[in-house]
Amino acid sequence: MSKNGEDSNSLLYLLAGVGLGAIIGAAAGLLLAPKAGTETREELAEKLKELKGKTEEWIAEQKAKKAHSEPEELGV
């Protein structure tokens, strides 16, 4: 088998291992969580709302910066 094929297989096994580890870690986190599911979902929903607000604020700031940095077009 060629060296390139071996590298491709190694990368595939690495990615599969990382994916499997992430799935196992997520499952363990959910099973061993100290809070009830409803509390966890409420907390996640609150954090997502905060993140959404911060993201919208950041986007508005970037648009404002872009609008101020672009030179005005002359109606020639």
Largest sheet: none
Nearest-integer average pLDDT: 83
* H/E series: HH
How far apart are the first and last residues' alpha carbons, in Å? 66 Å
Residue stretches low in confidence (pLDDT < 50, at least 5 long) are: none
The helix content, as a percent range, equals over 70%
CA-based shape: flat
Q: Number of helical runs?
A: 2
Task: Note down, in words, how this protein is organized.
- This protein has helices at residues 3-31, 37-69.
- The chain contains two helices and no strands.
- It has two domains: 1-32; 37-69.
- 82% of the residues lie in helices and 0% in strands.
- With 76 residues, the protein is an all-alpha fold.
Describe this protein with a few key phrases:
mainly alpha; single chain; 76 residues
What's the helix and strand layout?
Elements: H1 3-31, H2 37-69
Task: Describe the structure in brief.
The chain has 76 residues and is mainly alpha-helical. It is 82% helix and 0% strand.
